[in-house]
Amino acid sequence: MPTRPAVSPPRPEAILDALDPDQRQVAATLTGPVVVLAGAGTGKTRAITHRIAYGVATGTYKPTSVLAVTFTARAAGEMRSRLRQLGAHGVQAKTFHAAALKQLAYFWPRVIGGAPSRIIEAKAPAVADAARRIGVGVDRVTVRDLASEIEWAKVSLIMPDDYPEKALAIGRPAPAGLDHHTVARLAAAYEDVKTERGVIDFEDVLAILAGILVEDPEIARQVRGQYRHFVVDEYQDVSPLQHFLLDQWLGDRRELCVVGDPSQTIYSFTGATPAYLLDFRSRFADAREIRLERDYRSTPQIVSLANQLLRRGGVTGALELRAQRPAGRVVQYASYDDDAAEAEGIAGRAAELIAAGTPASEIAVLFRTNAQAQAFESAFSDAGIGYQLRGGERFFARKDVRDAIVLLRGAARTADPTTPLPQQVRDILTGAGWSPQPPAARGAVRDRWDAMNALVALADSLAAHPTADASPATVASLVADLDERAAAQHAPTVEGVTLASLHAAKGLEWDAVFLAGMSEGLMPISLAETPDAQAEERRLLYVGITRARTVLNVSYARARVADGAGTSRPATRKRTRFLDGLWPG
Q1: What predicted TM-score, i.e. pTM, was given to this entire model?
Q2: Domain CATH for 150
Q3: In CA terms, which of 158, 284, 407, 484 is 20 to 30 Å from 414?
Q4: pLDDT > 90? residue 431
């Protein structure tokens, strides 16, 4: 079979030609320090990947000398995919933890000796053991809250002995009804438990590596010799621990480009702080600041609501988005008698959108707390509409998905290269429960079909988009793509309405979004008692609004449903104060 000619990498000028003037500024500014303030939907990932690709194409960057860091495996996977498409092969795009873990595993035998310690997936068992050691009674919820507090202290670079003073200084209450000194004792006991078990946690990965770079100049020289150019995405979400490690990677150099949006800071409770983004030019007085404010995602109606929400709240550092899409539908607002009515109403409106041609996978229902999901699961099941609960079981952890990949892996060895990939995959997965038409029943049978159909759709997509060397997609290349996606937890799209919390929706977008439960006590959440906490809730609502491309529906329920009786409790809820003056009427 004759070989196809390799596709030439894009010319440097062509890389810049694909960008708007502001994005082009980002891409053409190849030396740091650079801070990019990028609003929602303004193409920040496009800008920074083109910057890296342009640097590689012009010879300014050696691909293996670039480290691009982001916060989720999914975002890192997307960045790597875009860089490959732009011809920037060899660039490292990883999460903080993935980059640190790779380096720590390499240097561990040399510095510490032996095999690296096992990383515990969850803190809960060690926290429960620590509580028993100091005589504190705990239940599952208490353990969860204590584990979160220990994690916050560690990413905030607060040692157990310093915890009472530091927490009291910022007015942070101790969790689970305990006092700060008890939490400090438990945190110290937690560290002892890990030491005795010979394990470390994810925060230790960053802290140990940073410590090695501080204490061993030769290793620091080796790492800094490898990575000379740094790009950090979602810089508003860095914690003090992550920033400390970034400082060790950087050393006394200035080749740093950071990208972020202070209006999307929604993880302060985990130790993230926008201070490093907002104060970047205090650290680097000559830093180039570039703003991305052209919004390509949302209609002017949605962008206007997002801008007004921030303007009325006086959000520090807020960018003023400028919509680039044509005018669309007005934002719809609705109130319902109770939670069940709200869920049923949203399911009905989603059904209308699907009937009008909007794919179910392009519709999302977003809410403040995971506990709100149950009503929507019931309503969509009753309406016969497929859905996926984001934050539930991971796609690649499902047994039916793992079994299907085993079948594909086996078939890759004997696949007929003359048969198109989409047909081969359909033939293979028919034996795993897939059929051209979805089953009428909901539940496990439909969930299995949805997962299989996501694999079929991925095969169709690969076949429609040739690889860089123009070779046809094969079952083997599909398996390789799935392996990479599994490593990055970048699941293919499942055909169903997405149900997700506002936090879980960060970084995603849909054609149509329903913002549900927009009432006082839920938005802002009742626990947000301080001005800073309430400001973060406003930013969280902003994130929710800006997930929508063309259709945005906002609603709340005036009451809950009484247990058992089926009648609504008294209408005591009020719509969120954040939309005062914006909600019609």
Answers
A1: 0.81
A2: 1.10.10
A3: 484
A4: no
